[in-house]
Amino acid sequence: MILRRHLLLAPLARSRRIALTIDDFNPGALGVDDVGAANQRFLDELDRAGLEVCAFVIGGVNQSAERRAHLEAWSAAGHRIANHTWSHRNYNNPAIAGPEFAADVARAHTFVSTFRTFTPLLRFPMLKEGETVAKRDHMRSWMRVEGYRNGHVAIDACDWLYSQYFLRAGRAAKFRAPYLNHLERMADFSVGLSARLGLDAPLTLLLHYNAINLAYLPDLIAHFRNLGWQWVPASRAFADPLYQREPSRLPAGESLLWALDGGRERHQGEQDKAEEEILRRLL
Ligand SMILES: [Zn+2]
Prior knowledge:
The structure is a single chain. By secondary structure, this protein is of the alpha/beta class. It has one domain: Glycoside hydrolase/deacetylase (TIM Barrel). It is 50% helix and 11% strand. The protein has 11 helices and 7 strands. The chain has helices at residues 2-15, 35-49, 65-76, 98-112, 133-146, 159-168, 176-196, 211-226, 234-238, 256-260, 268-282; strands at 17-24, 54-57, 80-83, 118-122, 149-150, 203-208, 230-231. Strands 1, 2, 3, 4, 5, 6 and 7 form a 7-stranded parallel β-sheet that branches. Helix 2 runs parallel beside helix 3 (65-76), helix 4 runs parallel beside helix 5 (133-146) and helix 7 (176-196) crosses helix 8 (211-226). The longest helix has 21 residues, at 176-196.
């Protein structure tokens, strides 16, 4: 009986695979005095869960010797270190030209490439990849020349917004259930897009190095496991051919699945507004 149940569950587990990517590594977003202890807590929880993640690091906010040591600990634990630019600019801003943005990415490269587990993946800040064909293609060609690939997001959530409200409410425990529910809804949305596109790839989830994930990382890992998802190493997810696709829509960027689908479903900006309503009511 146990064997039969196992066999029945196997195909479901295979078709819903998820990988964790963590962005920014801005210590200010943790809202704690002891950043070192918080950093170690992330690592301990990931180790307990047996998860390898991809860390997309902003160069500019991680230049102290202390931050270098914190990031070295991620690399030593086997997590991938990748590029999230030096100064986290919005590339859809018409005032930022292709060469200027590329220089910002190259500057971050001189930092992130010094880690043992450096992986040449670039994640665009706010997932903005350029509002014109010329700008979009400038960075695509830069990546090709420099041996980089796009660190695409398949599941885009508003954890950054939940974290702001969570901090404003003094880390109130009443945020836990709505937050897990939010992540589940965002994942289901991406599963729907993935099915419509006829895909069966592991889905990369974007979360940030922030207060709400510091509080609930083990809970969210367990939540997805309980829902039948299988966590896979981020490096394995990015090896799937899905992550080499280059959607043609403009402005370029946002979630890869959403862009491949032609941006037909609701925009992430609209989602942010809907979530803000939920969060306002929670305060
Ligand atoms: Zn970011």
